[in-house]
Design goal:
The protein has 542 residues and is an alpha/beta fold. The chain has 17 helices and 27 strands. The longest helix has 16 residues. The structure holds 6-O-phosphono-alpha-D-glucopyranose and zinc ion. The site of zinc ion has 8 residues, from loops. One of its GO terms (molecular function) is magnesium ion binding.
Amino acid sequence: MIETVPTTAYQDQKPGTSGLRKKVRHFQQPNYIENFVQAIFDSLDGFEGQTLVLGGDGRYHNREVIQVVLRMAAANGFGRVLVGQGGILSTPAASNVIRKYQAFGGIILSASHNPGGPDEDFGIKYNIGNGGPAPESVTDAIYARTQAIDAYKTVTAPDIDIDTIGESFIEGMSVQVIDSVADYAALMETLFDFGAIRDLIGSGFRVVFDAMSAVTGPYALEIIGRRLGAGEAAVFNGVPLPDFGGHHPDPNLVHAKDLYDTLMAPDAPDFGAASDGDGDRNLIVGKHIFITPSDSLAMLAANAHLAPGYAAGLKGIARSMPTSGAADRVAEKLGIPLYETPTGWKFFGNLLDAGMATICGEESAGTGSDHVREKDGLWAVLLWLNILAVRRESVAAIAEAHWATYGRNYYARHDYEGIDTAAADALMAELRGKLASLPGSAVAGLTIASADDFAYTDPVDGSVSAKQGIRIGFEGGSRVVFRLSGTGTSGATLRVYLERYEPADGDLAQDTPQALAPLITAAEAIAGIARHSGRSEPDVVT
Ligand code: G6P
Ligand code: ZN
């Protein structure tokens, strides 16, 4: 029976860079989930009888929320829900299922790389029919609706068995529990030469993958472990756990340190990779060499034609503004356009849909292509493996040859986490206030050439996104960017992005911290980070 339940609006349900993210306990307030889900449905038109895709990264609270959404989808008139077995779908796998089955949209339960557990984070986001995150027009409408909502619709029905593949019904709505991995693995087989990768691995090339006790475990076990023949032992932390084993499922040098150490050991494997909570991020580490996400994007773009799915070449490359300019040089050489977008995968959606870009990437460990509308951690790993299988060179050799061709963009991001929101806002406001006065002045021996607040006009729909980060450009091509994170759940996180370009005939073998030292000093001098935040060191350097 369909019920309309009265509710009281919450005023804090504004979706951030990637959906609504809060502490689990916050989500456990009365009707908090129901309000947000109803606000999503209320903001959409024409889904009557249509298909919704539903899945999540398996974190704490995932299973309960799946049941809530199933009942509400039935009450609101969806015809069918495709739900990943056990409530599991990685974010790129969900994107693929939406596209493959021409669903109306999807609800993904994830707080990505944030920790999980009763005292940690949860998240909900809505993806549209192209498989990508809802654009701002939709998330703005959802937010507006959350502030006024006074009732939600649900049905009285027992829990659905989401662990057994097959079909059941709620109030006439079909619920199909699908294999979480099968469609995704099939898609990967169309893009990459699995035979060539299997031969590489069979020849003794050692691959390891850290699933960080998060969603990619089952995907990596099937694809890397079985289909590519690396064996189950090649997948570390392959079982998804509701609290990710107490770890922070963020594949960076801090949280994936075990993997990094494995690759830096004298007897290291040839290739190591990791993915995050929901499977859309990637970390690539070769034997004795870390590949920054910005470099990885550039190297993948330069070599993508070696994989069957990209043999026809790329239409264009897109990167987020704080991502280094390494990919720009590849685009230039290939004679294809390079698009610079604000942070957030949703900004790539229009470019991909319009066939303007084929490969996209972000400094925040996200890379992907037009095969889905999310970034895709395992996809990046498989493209690297396909390239390695064709070139039969080490990761280090590929990186060195790349820099010798295009030059090297030394790059790092410094994060100051959990700082006081007012202090962070004050820092940014002060910076914005002095932008006009900066060009021409010298700091830490560097001359400022340009200073602005990045604004983006979408070339497809003309929408404008302002205040996307402060860019300070120096003479010689170095750059510092200041931005506040849009994905945190407590306090503010200041991100400082540092980049220095060294041409192909320059010194390509420096240590990154040493290459960036003058920029670190300049960033402090320009923004007064210590003065505003009380911090003298970043919490995370990636
Ligand atoms: C998520 C988004 C990315 C974004 C990243 C960092 O992973 O999907 O598109 O780059 O968060 O965002 P932030 O606002 O925290 O820098
Ligand atoms: Zn993620």
